[in-house]
Amino acid sequence: MSFDELKNYVSSQRLSGKNDTEIKAALDEKHWHKDLIEKALKESAIPPEPKLSEERLDTRLLSMSELFRAAWEALTKHLSLYVLAATTTLLAPMLALIVFLAPIIYDIRILHFTTADFFSRSMLPIVVLHAAIGILTIALIAFWSSLALYTIAVHDGMITLRHAFARSWERLPGFAWIGVLSGIIVILGLFVFIIPGIIFSIYLTFASLAYVVHGARGRSALLQSVTLVHGKWWRTFLMVLLPSFVTALIISFAGSILPGIGNFIAQVIVTPFMTIYALILYKNYFAFKKAHEVEAEEDLSALTKALDK
After folding, report:
1. Quick one: which of 149, 88, 157, 94 has its CA closest to 274?
2. Phi/psi class of residue 218: alpha, beta or left (left: φ > 0; alpha: ψ in -120 to 50)?
3. Res 282 pLDDT > 50
4. Mean pLDDT of the 172-197 span
5. How far apart are CA 63 and CA 69, in angstroms?
6. Burial letters 152-189, b for 16+ CB under 10 A, else e
7. How far apart are the C-alpha atoms of 26 and 42, rounded to whole Å?
8. Which of 53-67, 83-97, 192-206 has the largest mean confidence?
C-alpha cells in the first residue's frame, strides 16, 4: 500500500464513522510506522470527527440573545459554504419533486389522461407505486441534505460541501430512522389530542442532534432528548417557538419585498442560521446537564464522607 493509498484508507474509514483512535489501532496491527500514520491522518482529505470539549462549553444556560449572537458569528465565519449548503438543501427536494411530477404532467398534457384514467384498475397499481417511490425519494433527499447541513455546523464550517454530503450518506439510515420515530410519536400525539403532540415534539427536539453530535441511535437518541428537556420544557418551548416565529416573519417580509425570489433568499440565510442555533442550544443543554451531574456526584460523595465520620 502506497502513502496515497494509506491516505485514501484513512479517508474511507473516517467516512464510515471510525474515529482516529480506531484507525490508528487498525494500522498499528498492520505494522505501519507511527510517523506515516500521523502524517496520513493529518493530510487526509476528510477531516476527523470533531471532539466535543464539554469543559470549554458554557455550563450555564445561555440566553436567547447569546445563542443568536453565537449562531450569527458561526454563520458569517463561513457564510459562502452555508449559503451553498442551504441552497442545495432547499433545491434538492424540489428537483426530486419535479422529476416525480414530470411523467404525470406528460400524461395529462401530452397524452390527455383524465383522473379516471389514472385511477382505472389497470393504472392504479402503477400510480400507487410511482407515488410511493417519489415520496420516499423526496424524503430521503430531504433527510440527506439536512444531515449534510448539520454535519457542516458540527465541523464549524471546516469541511467541504462534497465531504459533508459523503459523510452524511454514510450516516443517513440512522438519522432518517430517528426522524421517522420522532414523527410517528408526534403524529400519534396530535391524533390523540393536539396538546400531547406539541408536548412530544418539544421533548424530542434534540433527538436528531443527539445522533449527529454524540452518535446516539434510535431509542437512545429519543431518551437523551427527553432527558435534556426534562425540567426545562417551557424554556425549550420558548427557545424553539420564538426564533421560529421571528424567522417566519423575516421570510414573509422578504417575500413581500421581492415577490417570487425573496422567500428563497431569506431561507438560504435563515435555514443554516437555525441549524447552527439548534446545535448550540443542544450543546449548551448537554454541558449544563453534565456539569450538574458532576456537582450532584460531588455533593453525594461529600455527604457520604460526612456520614462515615
Report:
1. 149
2. left
3. yes
4. 90
5. 10
6. bbbbebebebebbbbbbeebbebbbebbebbeebbeeb
7. 17
8. 192-206
For residue 85, count other CB atoms closer than 10 A to its CB.
26
Angle between helices 262-308 and 64-77 (to 10 degrees): 120
Residues 6+ apart with CB under 8 A from 74: 153, 156, 157, 276, 280
Over the stretch 39-57, which tens digit does the pLDDT of each residue have?
A: 877 777 566 665 544 444 5
Mean pLDDT of 155-163: 86
Q: Give dist(CA 136, CA 144) in Å, integer.
A: 12
Instruction: Tell me whether residue 42 is exposed, middle or buried, using C-beta atoms within 10 angstroms of its C-beta: 0 to 12, 13 to 18, 19 or more.
Output: exposed
Degrees (nearest 5) of the Cα angle 51, 57, 61? 140
Positive/negative CA dihedral, 239, 171, 13, 9: negative
Count of positions (residues) in the chain? 309
Three-state SS across 67-111? HHHHHHHHHHHCHHHHHHHHHHHHHHHHHHHHHHHHHHHHHHHCC
Contacts of 219 (CB under 8 A, 6+ apart): 181
Dig out the grid coordinates for 65 from the structure. 440573545
Report residue 182 as a C-alpha cell: 420522532
Instruction: Pull the grid cell for residue 26.
Output: 487498525
Q: Which of 106, 112, 286 is nearest to 212 (CA)?
A: 286
For helices 124-154 and 161-192, the axis angle rounded to 10 degrees is 120
- Secondary structure (3-state) at 57: coil
